[in-house]
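ingest -> fold -> write
write: protein_1
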Amino acid sequence: QVQLVESGGGLVQAGGSLTLSCATSGIVFSISDMGWYRQAPGKQRELVASIIGGSVMHYAETVKGRFTISRDNTKNTVYLQMNNLKPEDTAVYYCNAFSKKDYWGQGTQVTVSS
């Protein structure tokens, strides 16, 4: 059974930082493409950052220079370091794994106050 469990969300003031974690099980993590998505109220889910092929990283233009995605293959965990957070970063953040098919976590709420 595949499980993706996010943690690390919360309430932070603008300019602050948070680190999200996504612990996985049931997939071959080291060869899985991993990503973080977010969905704000009334908006579509959007890709925030991804690691493809283990090392190629992609970022949405809105988060470049502020967010960093990383992975620890020894812990089967992917991280999203978020710095200089803005109110528009407020959303539910979802972890995604692609290992023959897409898998999703339950989401973690990030709220940035102005």
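write: protein_2
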Amino acid sequence: QVRLVESGGGLVQPGGSLRLSCAASILSLDYYTVAWFRQAPGKESEGVLCISHTDGSTYYADSVKGRFTISRDTAKNTVHLQMNSLKPEDTAVYYCAAVDDEASLTEIATRNRYQYDYWGQGTQVTVSS
């Protein structure tokens, strides 16, 4: 059974950093566009970042530009989300998702989870002093 498993969440103070990981079993993430999206309590899901499987191009939501970075670790079949300069408004459950199609990264990043081929169960990130 294909699984995406997120890890690395936790409690961090404002200004701190976390690195989330999305590990896949059975499927190779190299053949999928991978997105990270987040959902805070009472708010709609927000697409945060996306990395293409065709040319490595990336999409960043304005809210995280300059602070978050997405990268692939092919050897470990994992995609990482490096989050720096964290703010309380970054508090949310973070999910990774994978899809194999040719839509634009902007469109892919703004999908709901059911529009991806695979998605994980999420990891909680809390930014608080």
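write: annotation protein_2
The chain has one helix and eleven strands.
The longest helix spans residues 105-109.
pipeline exit 0
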